[in-house]
């Protein structure tokens, strides 16, 4: 690492120029050129964070940057330096435990990274020495300029420029699944006009400096030949083979290394993402500040009262404890400050340092439940869910806004050619004969017409030529590679290779109408026409597709010498570049297809004259040789040549909805989330998808804010924009009746529902002015769904940021499957990637990845709900149990003259949070299911109960704090009442202060542990083991600690204290009585809870046998009667069979709840809260025991 940084620092001109120069094989350059081979980094990959030498200092530095760790370090140093009442071990050991556990976890993770690095760096590769003699080397020894040989199915060890291929057409196929997840074969081309004999090849490569964009590369190769002028060839991404990609369907290739090691595009793309913080962390910090203020307040009160108490006569220096001369000479203010620090140390356990390591372990271990969930496994791709970060598990239960892409997310991105329009005539049938309609057709029985044969063939030739599809070679054993598969039922099962499924669908569509694409090489393309004649075209130029132009073109030359340009793209991109009289015949079909939810593309052509082609050819060659601003120069040439075209027709491709997409969106809305669809598609297509997904209902009034509704231009458009915003704001915000947050959408159908539609152009106007932005946001927040169409990737991120930073800071979630969704995934609080067909860039940059959209429902409604409940209870419980722990210590100072005398033994102080109370809450936070998953999935409204961080607000926090204060007071004064008569043993021996503290501590440990047991709803053997095991361990440890004389202890405070304490019947009575009284509020809360809609955990289901009907629930009211089933349907609450109630309901709940059944015909006699959410349906026969 150091050597690489020094190389970058002193490596010469690389840091001062925008390009690098590489010599083939590092041979001497021709004498005419002055060239010095610069130093480049080696090919070692370093993803690890630590080394053996810097692990300890670097890891400690990073851990002590956390405020809590640094705070306890200061407390520990104070205990070491200042004469404090407690041993430094009491704070040092917990801190050491936290630091050690974290260091071991981070060290293990880094060791795995070292192991992975070594596997890559020691991978054997073949290097051609002097262009001819192959030798095997480790990958890390490759240098820039080396010629590498790669065989089929091998991965490229660095970024290479393709020089030679074993294929006759001078191409090779690669898959980049390791980089972006795209499993389709991509075609790469050799540098044209290079020597076949690499030994005689003498060339230099000038290319851009390393940059992370996988799809951009500019450079040129200078080829030197004896006695000839230097040949210059342009280099682009089609010539670059990326490290991590795999060679496919090609025996071998040779390439020259241009980027190595940490300068490869793969390494540059693996830089860390910005850290996201959850709302729970912010709540923890707020609660910590409260408890820190309590700590400082306690220390100040005790310090002040100490000096008030000592001001009395004889209190400062009693006859039995005279001060030393040194104590008398000590400055009063220094002594007060020292006492203040001592009280801080004595009470510092109110700050739960172990909570951080418990929370970290809970998040890390809890994330495995998502990965292990079998419901997330997709047999199609043989993958399940992926967790890229475990820090945001609880945020899945707090989502308020969902931003989703359309293509590949709501839809399958599995394209099927449906129909086309040629010269205004629609072709719907899959046969060669047309069965369409003309735009002039009337309602009568007029026979459908067809376009002219010449127009038909021109359109089909455009589909067969204007693409980057390659014909896949069949395997030797017959059949096709299953990467993108063959086409069953289509002539001879042709297989096609393309980076976009749209292009494959169009080529397959042309086959249905009689034109078949036979394949291409770097210079020609062949098609089979309707007459079974082979047509060959010379491929002159490919004008690649990009999201800005939204179109692509090819320039070809026919055998007759005609030079043709074929272009296909979005209607908004094609219509302004063709003759307007042709647009009217096609537009109606495009809009109709978009309304049906199809993806549409328009097809145009242009016949180029000799002068036009020569001008375009010169411009393209010049632009492609440029190292600076190559893309801008190419764009200018593209725009110049793609004008004045003739519109031929349009295509319609269907992208079907994802499985259960509508059900998932409906569940999210039922859970109270606002769903926004952000897509680059046209408005009509996206709107149809929103209707299909039930985001828009037929009764929904759509508010449209697009270029079409604005009209005009300039100042007039801005005035119209403000007018529409004010109108929509009045209708959707000002005139809207107040809505109840917990009412489902279908229950409030009386009020008018609004949907909002905005396009990218209008959004640019809105975001550029704050007065528009506020109105726009308020309108959107009062709509049931928002559709943003024609969006650029950056605009998606801007929308997410706008909502994320709005009033209330709502939790946002973005979900997408393509590279254009990465920006919004990174911007949102939670980013979800879908393992779709548009690559894995979204997955790599996401926090969580799922195979299908339908899995989002369980991820949020079940996992998110449970994760939030668990960690919220963990946080509140930690603060509560530490308050119970330290409050008696504070009260004890009022009875010991504020002498800083500890109430508990040092061993108890140390092990309370580490051993005695840590494992039960960790098990609870991993395994608790207060509501079973089936109920959570069936009742989306339960998600609303935990919205807006409801369990970590000040109300619940004050409740837990009040409970801790009550129990702390009860512990101390209950034991103090017992000690009014200190002679509690049979022999009359009195108990001392350590026995008093041990009684308080015993009641404390049992109470907080049993409190957690009462809160547990889902019991497993692990819960039983850790809860009862922790209590047993405390008893065993107390006997063991006090039953042996430890030679390393200067004071044996606890010797036989615990045993003697338990020998007193009064001590037993007080311990049991105080535990019962401490838990009494929870028991009374359950018994005296007023009759209301049952808590979701009370919902349980038991289907009746055939021929009966009933409605039943778990009620707090007791019943002394037995009931039997009556009729066939059942009005029921969702839940588990009655036989499973005990396994999911705490024991104290079962004591006070009975099952009641009512006949269906007496439904009107039942209180409304018992059936207002019930569903009626027919259920299969199953026996269910009656209950009394």
Describe it.
The model is unreliable at 1-16, 430-447, 476-493, 740-750 and 1091-1188 (pLDDT under 50). The strands form seven sheets. This protein has a nine-stranded mixed β-sheet with strand order 14-33-32-31-15-27-30-29-28, with helices on both faces. A nine-stranded antiparallel β-sheet has the order 17-16-26-25-24-23-22-21-20, sandwiched between helices. Strands 3-2-4-13-5-11 form a six-stranded antiparallel β-sheet, with no helix packed on it. It is elongated. Strand 21 (524-528) and strand 22 form a beta hairpin. It starts with a helix and ends in a 10-residue tail after the last strand. It is of the alpha+beta class and 1188 residues long. Helix 19 packs parallel to helix 21 (770-781). It is built from 35 helices and 37 strands. Helix content is 40%, strand content 18%.
